[in-house]
Amino acid sequence: MYKTKALFIGCGDAQELLPLADQQEQLLIGLEPTDELFARACDNLKDFKNVLLIKQRIQDWEAAEYLGDIDQIFFIFPTPAVLRGQAKVNTAKIFSLLSQNGVFILYTEVTLTDWPDPDDRARLQAFLQSLSEECLSITVAEINYEQLPLMAKQSHCGILFKAHNITKFTLIEAKK
Ligand SMILES: C[S@@+](CC[C@H](N)C(=O)[O-])C[C@H]1O[C@@H](n2cnc3c(N)ncnc32)[C@H](O)[C@@H]1O
């Protein structure tokens, strides 16, 4: 029924889905495990029939009907602890969901060069290591605020980062 499917892991209040929500031919799936943010996400996106919001962590989502069937998977500003603590199980789940030509895209405020917290940098490195065990092609780039897509700028965290003058980010793109 839908031409394409996009998944947003840890979508928070789901503001990040809004720039794509008018595209009726695309199914947007938002995963958010916390009660309060999930309730806000449902409220923010209630007018869009092509949006499916699920109160789950990525590693707990069974998703049987979507295996190998998601074209784009976004992880926009994950909590750094998630990157390391659940890296293996999460990267395995992400790659089981991606379609043959699908792409996984992650934006994080943590940079490998000059982010001040070494633990966060190690978490990002661990996540990249785990990704590289799952896929053939990974691109990692440092970008500035202006290079973020609208969905990241409009997310709750994106708005906070602008307010706090955080200007450097890491973009990860991975393909099967
Ligand atoms: C830093 S917030 C970012 C929220 C939103 N993407 C944004 O940019 O405003 C990280 C989000 O990931 C969610 N989260 C944490 N662990 C998760 C997991 N294992 N699977 C899916 N979401 C998770 C949190 O509840 C939180 O809403």
TrEMBL record:
Q: Which Gene3D superfamilies match?
A: Vaccinia Virus protein VP39
Name recorded for this polypeptide: Class I SAM-dependent methyltransferase
Q: Which InterPro entries match?
A: SAM-dependent_MTases_sf (IPR029063)
Q: What highest taxon heads this organism's lineage?
A: Bacteria
